[in-house]
């Protein structure tokens, strides 16, 4: 068996593993071995449905050292007026370039695709080629980096969480674009970003809204696209973020927090008549939201239990269907959020989200920066607290708390502040160039006024549920 030696063994070459490795080799001379069971980097984007796009701008996605796209503002289409958003194919192509032109070209990184990480064994770590079955041992001098803990679950890699009769037509969004026979109507199952994309795509292809039914067990909050915009639009981001912080500081309870976020359009319910129960970071423009609201048949009878040839059985009743009707499974959870645990532990880094909602790759990038520039694990964990992730809307209280604690810790470290100002994955990159904009000045004043009280108030609101590592 071959034995490799390295400083870091990074398991997972999705957006998380790539952003971590890119910053780590930029900030240190570390040697890195990357392993992924897929052939190419980019993680779940390799399996994405053909009509997927980022829901946030390309300008803040990917790795720190290489731009994704052209940072242009779209002039036409549902994204008009906002920074461009890459397609799945563009993202995969981007990650291949990053791997070849940046990581491998640096001489510091070796990549082993189509290889399963097996685990530690007798003082080293093992991975196995999925093609030859050959096992390789890796002696790790510093740390194993687990970039799979928050691995995403997508329609092609998950199993539907309900029973399916063989006589029904159930497809993934990937299969939807290749239907052999026309459908006698569509039922989209799920209430997340994939379901929103699928409904938008069906409408864009000329399917009348009356022929689409949408099963939404729990309604989602959405973010307005205008609030999550960087670069020239950073004043919009700052305004929205400062109102979010003020709501956190003055909210009397969790319900009041969400009420204030909605009143200030920091959050928007998908359906204005229904109080949302979930928040998974979906971001929509007003045009996209209005378009989705044209679908009037929304089924709210809980989760699907069974899909039969002539009916769909749900928690709270059933609705009819027929064998020619097409059902689209959009129930995969996307970003997974297992229980938070310390990011830095002896011999191991477990990549998790620090800043979320926001751009996911920022968290692994700053984790790498802290790993490369600090010595003490307690200090590293103080600077990189994991947040509780997505799911129930209430988690936004804990996410906001962790995010504000992290911002406060970073503000006291001049080198981190300097790095953040330059990091292309940060929404506030280049904000200092907009200090003459009254919206930025107003936002900074609001943040100065409410930052401390927001943390104190969120501690009060989140205390009963706060995970021990936060
Ligand atoms: C439709 C959709 C749109 C999204 N849009 C955005 C957006 O606009 N902005 C944003 O910030 N985020 C967005 N996200 C979130 C997105 O999931 C993250 O940005 C990111 O892609 C997650 O990357 P990851 O590396 O954490 O996970 P993954 O992409 O799941 O990568 C994990 C990798 O680990 C590998 N792996 C797992 N186990 C092993 C093992 N034992 N051995 C070897 N390899 C292993 C897997 O093969 C995989 O390649 C979106 C997600 C979805 C589903």
What does this structure look like?
The chain has 470 residues and is α/β, with parallel strands linked by helices. It has two domains: 2-153 and 335-403, FAD/NAD(P)-binding domain (3-Layer(bba) Sandwich); 155-220 and 283-334, FAD/NAD(P)-binding domain. Helix content is 32%, strand content 20%. It contains twelve helices and 22 strands. Strands 1, 2, 3, 4, 5, 6, 20 and 21 form an eight-stranded mixed sheet that branches. A hairpin with a 5-residue loop joins strand 5 and strand 6. Helix 1 (15-27) runs parallel beside helix 2 (88-103). The chain is globular. The two termini are 41 Å apart. The model has no long low-confidence stretch (mean pLDDT 95). The chain binds flavin-adenine dinucleotide. Residues 11-17, 35-38, 43-44, 52, 54-56, 61, 116-117, 147-148, 150-152, 154, 193-194, 334-335, 359-360 line the site of flavin-adenine dinucleotide.
Uncertain ranges: none
Q: How many helix segments?
A: 12
Question: How many structural domains does the protein architecture include?
Answer: 2
- Helix and strand content put the structural class at alpha/beta
Mean pLDDT: 95
**CATH class membership of the largest domain:** Alpha Beta
Biggest sheet record: 8 strands, mixed
Query: How much beta, percentage-wise?
Result: 15-25%
What's the name of the CATH homologous superfamily of the largest domain?
FAD/NAD(P)-binding domain
Record field, number of beta strands? 22
Bound small molecules, deduplicated:
flavin-adenine dinucleotide
Query: What is the CA-CA span between the terminal residues?
Result: 41 Å
